[in-house]
Every structure is written in structure tokens, then in C-alpha cells.
Batch of 4 targets.
Target 1
Amino acid sequence: MKRTIISKLGAARGGERRRGAIDIDCAPSGHQNRLHMSPPVRRINGFSLVEVTFALGVAAFCLIVLLGLLAVGLKTQQASMQQTTANAIMSMILGDLRADVRLPPGQASKEGNSGFGLHGHWLAVSTPDTIYFTNQAKMTGNLNATTAPADAAFRAKVTYLFPPNASTSVATVNVSWPAAVDPATTIPAGLVKTFIAVNR
């Protein structure tokens, strides 16, 4: 089927215009019409295998770093909790030693009822006192026990520096953990020290 298209052809500079006929062979289906033509297949953008592998590698590296930081954070938190408990134990011992100062005539010390049994130990300066505590800062076992009890987590050692005089009593207090480690022979995992001077 042939269709005739009339086109206008003009000269370059206003010359005589000619009309000519151009015959175009058209298929009967009419696919030459742009409105009826199907759009060309477009390439869909996506990730290549190399890009996906690279992205997974970066994600894995970040996860490994985060897991490493998690372990460090947990260890720091545990050390902080042990430090806080050791400071609480030290405060209780200092309060107990302050309760064992010189009393007015006619008054008896209440330290033996509510304390750790340190009453009168200011005079025994040659022998330090050792007290064991649990993770909840509660005394466990006997005073000056030779071995740490099974539930002991902290070891407190009270060293009296010289015999008390009429005005001052002086001592050092060391709280270390774990309780099974003796700080005199082995370096413990943690240690807190303080010095006390009680005005009597």
C-alpha cells in the first residue's frame, strides 16, 4: 500500500517553490505511527555483584568494631561497679573505726553490736585486721579468717599505724578484689586505699 505525501521544497533564497510527491511504502499494521509504537526497552539501574560485596564488607567491618566496643564497655562497667562497692565498704569501715574512739566515762562501745568487731583493735597495732565482704558489701566469714569464704568478693585490710594517743588514732584501709588474692603477695584486679586519722 503506497501513500503519497506532498511536500513543499523551497529554493535556498526565495526561489521558485516546487511541489513534489514522495511515495512511502507503509505496512498495513501502521507501526510507523509514533503513537502506536511500543517504547524501547530501558535498562533498569541496579547494583552489581562487586558493589554488593563491597557494601557487605563495610557492614561486616562496622559490626566487628561495634562488638569489640561492646566488650570494652561491659568490662568498664563491671570495673566501675566493683570500684563503687569497694568505696562503700571503705566508708563502712571508716565509720566503724570512728565509732571506736575514746568514749566518755560510763559509756560502752556499741561497735561490737553493729560493727565488724573492731572494738579495741586500735591498740593491736602489730596485727592488721582482715575482713571479707560479698558483692552486696556485706561482711562474710569471721574477722581475720585465714582463708577467704566461698561467697567473698572483696578483702579489706585495716592496718593500725601506731598506738593511739589521747587525741588521734591513725590507720590505713585497703580494699581489694577478688578476695582470694592477697595484695601482699599478688597484684589484685583492683585496689582502693585510704588513710584515716580519727580525732579522739
Target 2
Amino acid sequence: MISRIDHVSLAVNNYDKGADFFINILGAIPGASGHNKVMKYFWQIFSLGDLSRFEIISPTDPGSFLDNFLSKRNHGGLHHITLQTPDIKKAMKVLEENDIPYFGYNEYEDFWKEIFIHPKDAFGVLIQIAQFYPDQWLDESVKLSGSKKWQVDKTQSGCILNISHPGGGRIKFQLTTLEVKELISDLEKSG
């Protein structure tokens, strides 16, 4: 039902301060972003390292859905955890079969379908379950270009093997010349 944890979402009062901390201090790479004019907030996805992602959400106008949450947390805090599912309808069915209530079913065209489980039903944390294509939300610098599942970059002592991850982004392995030869041998044996 669940493929993986995609990201955690942090709610902050001041987006610029939050983004500055994560980008300039911790080295996060900004990805997709957008404004939700109805719920009055801004969101942005960030990548850290090869596969870690988080989101910053921040109110844009009075009356934001974040107002109550942030009024209780001076500096902001963990708002929700987003879990990726390959099939939102199947996830809904499993929850229904187990008497776990959910709310907020939304479909945003063809690229995002979501539901939420209230913290009172999920051990104190708001859970968002969503069906989507993760590479759509990432900066080009953290994913492989095109449809190829790997990329090899030669180094002085071997190579860096980049492998596309099904959850979006890529994993980098630094290999020595000896490890490259062993990998080639193992691949030849498996083919």
C-alpha cells in the first residue's frame, strides 16, 4: 500500500528565514514550489543528500489553514508526513476495511491525488497519503536526465555510479577502479 516516506513537512511563520537556514547552512536544494490561494499558503520541496526530502509550508495571508497550527508553535514545527502510494484508491480501501477514517480527498489533475489521516487516528501525527510521480517535484540537479536509469562519471581513482531511484532522485556510489572491475564481472555473470 505504501511505497515509502516521501517527505516531512515543516510549517514556519517566516519562509525566507526557514529557506535560508536549510539552503545556506545545511545545503538543501530547492525543488518545485507553489502557492495555494484557497488555503493561503506557499509550499516548496527541498532535497538533502541523495534521497532525503522535506517541504517548507508557510502562510501567505491572514486566514491561512496554518494559522492555528503556528499560533501554538512560536518557531513552527513538523506539520505532517507524506507517504507515497502507487494507488490512492487501494490505500483508501485498506483504510476503510480497517475502520481508519481519512479526509480531504483531492485530485490535482493527473499529477497528484491525496488523502489525510488525522493525528488522533495516527498516533499524534498528521499523515498525508499521496499518489504522484516524485521526479516532477525535484530540481534537475538531483535527478538523472532522460530515461536512462544510470550514469557513469569517470574520476581519477575509478568512477561515480549514479543510479535513478524509483522514489525520485538518484543515488551516487563512488567506486574505485578495482570495484568497477568487480561490478563489471558481477554484471557479466548475471546477464
Target 3
Amino acid sequence: MSEDLENSEFKLFIKGPIKDAGATSLLEVRKEMNVEMIIPCSEISISIERRIQRTIIRGLEGDDLIDEGAESAVYNIEACVDVAVYTTIMGLFRGGQPTIEEPFEGGEKKVAFKSIEYNSSNKVLKIRLIEDTDYTY
């Protein structure tokens, strides 16, 4: 890892069950286990939306907007990582529902993977995570 990334202000702390843990030997029994990772990131962005119910009544004035109070957060993470980190992330992707340390406000959040992109030529990993709003610590 380059010195810039090791000193990166943005870090993703992620942990969860990993599928197909262990070596790739055909003789070894693969099992699930938990993993914890700290990934230095070049960019972390968040998009938060509130759930709004909107009723449009024809013939009457205006809309009827109701704020349901629920928030939905989507995290976009970009990092430069080697193939070993990518394969571990793929194990998390296939292994279950991980948790992250919220990078801006702190606290642990349960998330689900929306998508993963990896480019081997420049080692750029892009992850999109969606927060599970029913989960709190």
C-alpha cells in the first residue's frame, strides 16, 4: 500500500461473516467465519433520503405530504486495493450481512452490499452499501 493510503483520512471498518473461508485446496473443508477489515479509502460518499408519502388529490388544493421519518443511507466507497483484499470483500459479499463503523458520525451500522466493481489494472475497488435502518446498536 502506498504511504498516502496508509495515512488516508477515510477508512472503512467492516466486519461480518465470510463465505468459503480457508485455502483453495480441494481437500480442505471450507467453512464460514467472521472477518474484520480496515480499508484505506480514496473516497467515501453518503447519500441519505427520507421516506415521504405523497398523495395528490385532483380537484383540491396542493399535495398531501407525510414524512414517515425513516431514513435510507447509501454509501459509495472507492479504494485502491490488491486482489487479496478484493477476494476477501467478495467473501463478505457472499457471506451474509456485515456491519460497518459509520465513517462520519460513528457508531456501528448494519449494511447490505448493493454492488462491487474491481479493476485489476489500476486496483480500484468500488463498493455501494445500503444501510439497514431497522438495525441499531
Target 4
Amino acid sequence: MNADPRAALANLTAALERHLEASASRRGENDPTVVAAYQAVADAFDLYDDALLEAYGEVTPLEIYSGDDDDDDEDEDEDVAEVLDDHGDEDGDSTGVYLGLDDSDYDEEPSQSK
């Protein structure tokens, strides 16, 4: 692969724009257009990150969330599991793909702190 990082960045930017448009006009909880746009962003990001690494030996500080946490450091995983609930399959769909927040995931009125 000898991808141009500038072209890969343009592709990533276009994918993000399409994701924004799909999100703004989504038709329900698991709108296939939004899901496809989400995957297109992930794919475009991977291509950009690979092109950046190949051309300049650099990477972004980002990674694609896959839902799998198969780290070799099990002690750290256990410590995190005690503190955090991963909210694994709360909606019962077992897809592991982030599709946005549900209404119940955030407060309707922001707290007023002074």
C-alpha cells in the first residue's frame, strides 16, 4: 500500500461529513444509513492512519472501538471491571457497535452549578 496521507485525510473528512448528515436525518434507533456511515468513518480512519504511518512513521492518538477488550494484561482489566460497568448488551442486540446515546443516557436538563 502506498496511499497518500493527504488523499486519505480528504477521504476521512468526507466520511465524517456523510456520517454527520446521516446522523442528522436518522430514521430510528438502528438506521442502516447511520450504521453504514459509521463503518465508512472507521474504514477511512484505518486507511488514513496506515497511510500516515507508512509515509511519516507517525500515527494518530485514536483507535477504532471494536467492543472487544482482549488485552493480555488481565490484572488491569480486573481492576477496571471493578470500577466501571461496561454496559455490555443492555439493549439486547449484542452487536457491540456504538450507535449513539439513548434518551435515558443523559440528563434532560443540565445541572446548574455556581
